[in-house]
Design a protein that fits this description.
The complex is a heterodimer. Chain A is mostly beta strands. Chain A is built from one helix and six strands; from the N terminus they run βββαβββ. In chain A, the strands form two sheets. A four-stranded antiparallel sheet of chain A has the order 3-4-5-6, with no helix packed on it. Chain A has a two-stranded antiparallel ribbon with strand order 1-2. Chain B is 28% helix and 27% strand. Classes of the chains: A mainly beta, B alpha/beta.
Chain lengths: 85, 418
């Protein structure tokens, strides 16, 4: 089970959170269509540390950026998602 | 290869079964092959078999990083059916189902394919509308489908909770009677043995670490056992697709997720069909050993861990018990997870790539096992001719940029919403 440390609520069980998408897939309104297509429909899909957007959906609702290892599930950082990276 | 038959079994028995040889050889890799298949799962082995059998390709190698049957081939819930919603998917899976129906004879290996029916339950009027629509679509395309009333479902699975206050009330169902289950280990062993007997080199413990590319063309692979040259290279390595394709400069429309499955202790026969549901994600069947086999949602975040989250065990058990209350006293024996290649429309990719002589078979989401023979047959055609077969042509890698997705669930490019 993932233990995710929400900046507002402290360490909480992984089931309170929802994975939203990999950070690389965030599409900005100003992006050209080819880049938007590439971000939406392809992935690095790393086996290792990945930047991800999560939400504390069943808690405080905060949008979070996680650095998480997809092979070991180790979470190295959780920060508040504030602006488009 | 010595044929498996009742007569040979009897003869072997008279000589203490000393005359049986291993089911497939353990060859050292040669320096070059006409076709190299990366990944010795069901799809890779089936591809190699049909390359040798149907297309007469003489020199084929299947490179497997672990052992045959150690990956997703041995981690699925063994369900076989072709009752998909979209015509493209129906054609692909129906081709596969037809091959399943003759597979044990074809391979001279009992894959224990049991057509016990694949039943989808409907829990509301809107579920039944969707099931009726799917059934109509299937029958229009020549695939068997039968809409069942609540009473018919009750006769088929007497242990279902049909009471008025059931958590998931049953309104009816849609059954594909030709669907069922097969023994997943036997499928890979059978294909490996049959491919080997046609001269295919099945090489285990040989991990492909990268592709050798020159001026937009693949020349071969680098492996833990040295470099191997290949006329054509077919990727068929779920869980490794993105990494290997990256060595050719390709970014794939794939995200890897965990999918779990569970079995209970073995009990006497109690469920003689495959139970699925239109509304909830829970599969229930009973193996020939008597174990109740359960599956459910993926873990809904990217993972290569092959180790699932405990919360899913509770979810699946709760759903299964709500459907079949008699399961509540069973003890779970094992839980495991496989890495699925989740594509962005829920459908697989079988076809060519922008790199010359490099081909891709990936993105089967959580439905790869049922497609094993068909996928192999179509991928072999694609690898042998260099062009996709009409059945797998819609499943091309470039369909996403063309806007021609095959979206079974209508869920868009988010695997966790599928």
């Amino acid at each position: 089970m993932l233990l995710i440390c929400c900046p507002f609520c402290g360490p909480r069980a992984g089931v309170e959170f929802k994975f939203e998408r990999a950070l690389e897939t965030i599409v900005g309104p100003e992006m050209p269509a080819t880049e938007a297509m590439s971000r939406l429909y392809t992935r690095d899909n790393p086996r290792g540390v990945s930047g991800e957007l999560w939400r504390h959906s069943f808690g405080c609702g905060a949008w979070l950026m996680l650095q998480r290892d997809t092979a070991t599930h180790e979470i190295s950082s959780v920060t508040l998602f504030e602006a488009h990276p | 290869m010595k044929r498996y038959s009742a007569l040979n079994l009897l003869k072997g028995g008279l000589r203490g079964h000393a005359s049986w040889s291993r089911a497939w050889r353990a060859p050292a890799p040669k320096s070059a092959y006409d076709v190299i298949i990366v990944g010795g799962g069901g799809h890779g082995l089936a591809t190699a078999y049909y390359l040798a059998k149907a297309h007469g390709v003489g020199s084929v190698a299947v490179l497997e990083k672990g052992w045959i049957g150690g990956g997703n081939a041995g981690r699925n819930t063994t369900i076989v059916r072709s009752n998909y919603r979209l015509p493209e998917s129906q054609r692909l899976l129906e081709l596969s189902l037809k091959l399943w129906e003759g597979l044990s004879d074809e391979l001279n290996y009992n894959v224990m394919f049991s057509q016990r029916g694949a039943l989808f339950l409907g829990h509301s009027e809107s579920d039944m509308t969707k099931l009726a629509e799917r059934g109509d679509s299937l029958r229009c395309n020549g695939v068997d489908a039968e809409l069942l009333t609540r009473e018919q479902v009750g006769r088929l699975v007497p242990l279902l909770d049909l009471s008025a206050n059931a958590r998931f009330p049953v309104c009816g169902g849609l059954i594909q009677r030709r669907g069922g289950v097969a023994r997943h280990d036997a499928v890979v062993w059978g294909y490996a043995r049959a491919a080997d007997s046609l001269g295919v080199d099945v090489i285990q413990n040989c991990e492909v670490t990268g592709l050798r590319i020159e001026s937009g063309r693949v020349l071969g692979v680098t492996t833990t056992l040295g470099d191997i040259a290949g006329g054509r290279v077919g990727l068929c390595a779920t869980g490794g697709s993105s990494r290997i394709a990256a060595s050719a400069g390709l970014r794939l429309p794939i995200e890897c997720h965990n999918l779990q499955a569970f079995v209970s202790e073995p009990v006497k026969p109690m469920i003689d069909t495959v139970i699925m549901s239109q509304s909830i994600h829970c599969y229930i069947s009973q193996s020939d050993k008597g174990e109740i086999v359960l599956g459910g949602d993926p873990d809904l975040y990217p993972s290569y861990a092959q180790r699932g989250m405990p919360a899913r065990i509770e979810d699946v058990a709760a759903q299964a018990i709500a459907l079949v209350p008699a399961l509540s006293r069973l003890r779970m024996l094992r839980a495991w997870a496989g890495t699925t290649d989740m594509s962005f429309d829920g459908s697989p990719i079988i076809g060519t790539t922008p790199v010359e002589n490099l081909f891709l078979n990936a993105g089967w989401c959580y439905g790869g096992f049922k497609a094993t023979p068909g996928s192999g047959w179509l991928y072999a055609h694609t690898l042998a001719t260099g062009e996709p077969h009409p059945v797998n042509a819609p499943f091309s890698l470039d369909r996403f940029e063309r806007g021609a997705t095959i979206d079974e669930a209508g869920a868009g490019p988010m695997p966790q919403h599928r």
